[in-house]
Amino acid sequence: MSYSDWEPVIGLEIHAQLLTESKMFSPDSTHFGGADNEHTHPISLGMPGTLPVVNKRALEFSAKTGMALNCKIRKKSVFSRKNYFYPDLPKGYQISQFDEPLCEHGYVDYFLDGEIKRVGITRAHMEEDAGKSLHQGDFTLINLNRAGVPLLEIVSEPDIRTPAEAAEYARTVRKILRYLNVCDGNLEEGSMRCDCNVSVRKKGTEKFGTKVELKNINSFRFVEKAIEYEIQRQIDCIESGEKIIQETRLWDAGKNRTFSMRGKEDAHDYRYFPDPDLLPVTLDDSWLAKLKGELPELPLNRAQRFQTEFQLPAYDSFVLTTEKALADYFEETAKLAKNPKGASNWVMGELLRELNEAKIDVEKSPISAKDLAELVAMIDAKEISGKMAKDVFADMWKTSKAPKEIVKSKGMSQITDSSAIEKIVDDVLAQSAQAVADYRGGKTKLFGFFVGQVMKASKGQANPEMVNQILQAKLKG
Amino acid sequence: MISEAEVSRVALLARLSLSADETKKLAEQLSQVLKHFEHVSKIKTDGIEPLVTPTDIEEFWREDKVVPVAHASEAAMQNAPEAVGNLFKVPPVVG
Amino acid sequence: MNILTSSLKQIRDSVVKGEVTAEQVMQKYFAQIEKWNPRINAFVTLNEKALEQAAAVDARVKKKEDIGPLGGVPIAIKDMLCTKGIRTTAGSKILENFVPPFSSTVVNRLEAAGAINIGKTNQDEFAMGSSSETSAFGISRNPWNLEYVPGGSSGGSAAAVAAGMAPAAIGTDTGGSIRQPSSFCGVVGIKPTYGRVSRYGIVAFASSLDQAGPMTRTVEDAALVCEAICGRDERDATTAANPVPKWSQQITKNLKGMKVGLPKEYFSDQVTPETRKAVDKAIAAVKAAGAETVEVSLPLTDMAVSIYYLVATSEASSNLARYDGVRFGHRADFSKKPAEDLAEFYCRTRGEGFGTEVKRRIILGTYALSSGYYDAYYRKACQVRRLMRQQFLDAFSKCQIMMGPVCVSPAYKIGERIADPLKMYLNDIFTTSANLVGIPGMSVPAGFSNEGLPIGVQLLSAHFQEQHLFNAGTVIEEALAIKELPHVLQ
């Protein structure tokens, strides 16, 4: 990606809704879908006299995420009030964190175009979500089911330089969140939101250009497109002598462009101050150590281990570690089958194809890792051929039965007894005397015909390599 | 010390409508109050940690459990000035 | 037994013994309210179910069931506390018709102890005031002289108890709002240590300063109510885990060994001679019981009002942002002139719904927190607040309690001070410090002015040391208690 002598400077702010049962500061449900204003409690409605109390699990999830992002976790962090007026903000302020956030100074490594790149994480802090506004033209309707849901806001350093980097960084953060099981990362539904800060400057300058914030981006594809559009827009602006206005712009997926938000008020003065209803959060070393111990192996590390331990190519390792459940499945299969490459081929090939077609996650796979491992082992032991295995796999997918059982019930065992194969070959050659003569006379292409006949006669069960060997030998004459 | 224009600016931040008379009176009264505060600014406070909660209290957190509220939607809407079904109704929001 | 001048303990014990029924008690108080509330305006809303609830107590007495330590006792509740199903206004037009779907923890605990809510009392709007003159529901009057203020912001609660309309009341104290009206009306009032009493369900004014507490006829009654309402609440993260002592059972009148600090800044020329006289009588009483006085100094005393008004208004400006006419409360009428934008929707609703004093404090607080001023005002005030706290801790290393006036003077005439905000604020000089540093404070009647208005004496102790206050308070009460109802009402 080249922008002549311009350099884009990009930072991302990711809001992740945490997978807790109850809200950040109140005991009402966070679950999606619920009748209008049903998942509410007087606290979430900002009723007079109500008070917040911190959700312990939200705190755990946030600290764990911070650790996974290589951040320093503050032993003392403070909740602050961010004051502004909006109908979906019940208290007239959002409880957030300002100058003493929970997590700071981290980084995320991700893989793009064959290399590992790094983005700094400025901070990650806890806050509560607002409700939802439904614009109806003449009026607006407010649903506060979402008000109070715990959020972790992850702010990157402006280290990103291309739209593709931005998308891959965001995908990586999503992967990490899903590995930790703290957020389901669904951009379309809004459980993870990506806001992008974009500015441009001439290559070689240190000073940052004016940054513009982009919102309303609900897919990784749009992350790239929106940023790409905005970079070009800013370059065009500056080159035609205009100044970039610091503002928030929305991405319009239909029109493929960003546009300025109308009716914007003048810059907010949020009047942050420490929330006097909440004491500072103090964490002790033993609690932090316990959380650290609970972290799973992170996606990039796991992919790299698959490369070194299992000698898998980089591409394969990244596909297999897209989701933790898939990586777990693969690794179990590989260990049980004692054949990582074989396991990798079957998981990345047949299994993923079926899963995608059926639109289900690997957790719901009708074929267990144990059974897939058995299939791989059977191929390795030459009990069945690769081709036969495909049929067995199809059966396994339909019935969830173990491969040994299927092979037995269908009498599908591979024939590996050389004398048995010899007999079949002898029979075939005897019935194709003319073809044999032609072959020996130079029509070597007929070999495939003989193979086909042998396989047909053996109902596909003869071991292909042995068939080849024996045919070769017998045809030599 | 605090002008009428300042009072108007702050009133907008606080979403309070004030009459011209109220604005004028507030500017005078608040200037008096702020002038009186000047003696506080003279106290040396370098390195002093601000005090928010005045008593030493052990912090505690909440277990992540949902406590159901009976008839939550009704309770939520019971005092609503204007509603459509179980949703709060407000003038159109721009942006 | 004269029910209207009985202590709540006497009432409760009589109900248990069957000497009187809870219903009879309630009826007596309702009769007094009917007679005097139109003039005094202590109550804004009465509990229509009170007699029914009293009858339920009587049914339990008949079955010889435990009715609780406050069983059958009518208690007036300041309108700052949410009461489920009963209108809760905080003295404001913006909550004129607000009916909460839940009760505050304090109210729940009182009911669990057997008390009966008799009604909601009048107050300065959002507890912002020291005279109960800023209520949207009319002023309240001092039962000792109806032309005088009862004090504020818990003026309705103080007047209710002083006028024999209830044996006890709950008030809230952010800068003196229990202690000052108690002093003005001649009742006992205590603000416990910050963190003792849950703020859940109490309309928030200033979160780091607010505490609810009892206003009663006797010190023992105050201790009994405190036992019922104090203690950690898992719905309020600022409540303390400290166990709640059985204060009422541990009261001693032997003050031998007790050192009483007299802060020299509290005995300045500002204090009127009559007030000084009353305070001196109280000091004499505790000395007679064995206590020794020592001089202490609280040099930051004259900063207290400034710091208080910076911190309290800053917190309030944020706490009152929720009153926006969206989910509850008053909304301006937009039918004839629609709002042009969202800002106008908020501005008109809030501009109409809030009174002058509330608007003044919101503007001041918003200013103190705003960009460019935060460090100079809010943050600075918080730093000095820490210095103040240290000064009090140092003083309490030399004494168990401190004594001094609650106010420089007794109650003043209605309308006399309301026009000068700064002058009003400066009256809070002796009471705001206790809220700023979190210590408990009590006002106990100590005499009358020449015009027949009550004067209270203030007792302060270190954090969680309320027992000393109950002890010394009892000694003072024995010497100087007011036993009858105001002559005005007889």
N→C terminal distance of chain A: 63 Å
Helix content of chain C: 25-40%
Strand content of chain A: 15-25%
* Backbone CA Rg of chain A: 30 Å
Report the span from N to C terminus of chain C.
17 Å
Task: Provide a quick synopsis of the model.
The complex is a heterotrimer of chains A (477), B (95) and C (490). With 477 residues, chain A is α+β, with helices and mostly antiparallel strands.
Which properties best describe this structure?
heterotrimer; A: 477 residues; alpha+beta; Arc Repressor Mutant, subunit A; 9-stranded mixed beta sheet; 3-stranded antiparallel beta sheet; 15 helices; 16 strands; C: 490 residues; alpha/beta; Amidase signature (AS) enzymes; 11-stranded mixed beta sheet; 13% strand
Notes on the structure:
The complex is a heterotrimer of chains A (477), B (95) and C (490). In chain A, 40% of the residues lie in helices and 19% in strands. With 477 residues, chain A is an alpha+beta fold. Chain B has a domain at 4-38: Orthogonal Bundle (Histone, subunit A). Helix content of chain B is 40%, strand content 6%. Chain B has helices at residues 4-13, 20-41, 72-77; strands at 83-84, 87-90. In chain B, strands 1-2 form a two-stranded antiparallel ribbon. Chain B is flat and about 55 Å long. The relative contact order of chain B is 0.08. Chain C is α/β, with parallel strands linked by helices and 490 residues long. Among the domains of chain C are: 3-254 and 447-458 and 482-489, Amidase signature (AS) enzymes, CATH 3.90.1300; 321-383, no CATH class. In chain C, strands 1-3-2-4-6-5-10-11-9-7-8 form an 11-stranded mixed β-sheet, with helices on both faces. In chain C, helix 7 runs antiparallel to helix 15 (466-480), helix 8 (273-288) packs across helix 15 (466-480) and helix 9 packs across helix 11 (356-369). Chain C is globular. Classes of the chains: A alpha+beta (477), B mainly alpha (95), C alpha/beta (490). Chains B and C meet through helix 1 and helix 2 of B and helix 9, helix 10, helix 11, helix 12 and helix 13 of C.
